[in-house]
Amino acid sequence: RKEVEQDPGPFNVPEGATVAFNCTYSNSASQSFFWYRQDCRKEPKLLMSVYSSGNEDGRFTAQLNRASQYISLLIRDSKLSDSATYLCVVNSASNTGKLIFGQGTTLQVKP
Amino acid sequence: DAGVTQSPTHLIKTRGQQVTLRCSPKSGHDTVSWYQQALGQGPQFIFQYYEEEERQRGNFPDRFSGHQFPNYSSELNVNALLLGDSALYLCASSLATGGSFFGQGTRLTVV
After folding, report:
1. Chain A environment of B56 (Cβ under 8 Å)
2. How do residues B13-23 score in pLDDT, each as one tens digit?
């Protein structure tokens, strides 16, 4: 079983749609959680950290459920520029900066 | 303030050869981690350096080795290259704990 699991998609949605991505992780001792965005042939870039209380950054909302070991990302009012791969990332139990990535979920927003 | 920089950006090597990739971390960051990203997959952790020592290692063979210098820059060395080593190699820098920032990567092709 992979340590971090994501549905690879692709998710094809029209502009303006709301889309949700989910992710599960296996290590209950994991310390911190992130969503990264990766454009084609580019490096991953931090989109947002994920907290148990839930956090929002503009059109993006992230949620963590530690009991279910489940992380989510909600994108509202999708833009063409949101097309990318979204990587669910968990910091290892030792919280030393080792990141464990999911496979990534590909989003394609169409006009 | 320069972010994480990697060199070279692209590289083609022959099976059996050796390669060295370089990384300069973001200013003020003391920890460097290396990741391998195969096509269609999330990045996989290779190892992490802190205070010039390898602090953690992922599930990669001994052909993969590294070094960190007193100025925190780092090298990744891969010996006896295999076709399967073809990937995007990413360097990430961080403080001892905290979010990681990625360089643009080195795309290695082994022929």
Report:
1. 92, 94, 96, 98
2. 999 999 999 99
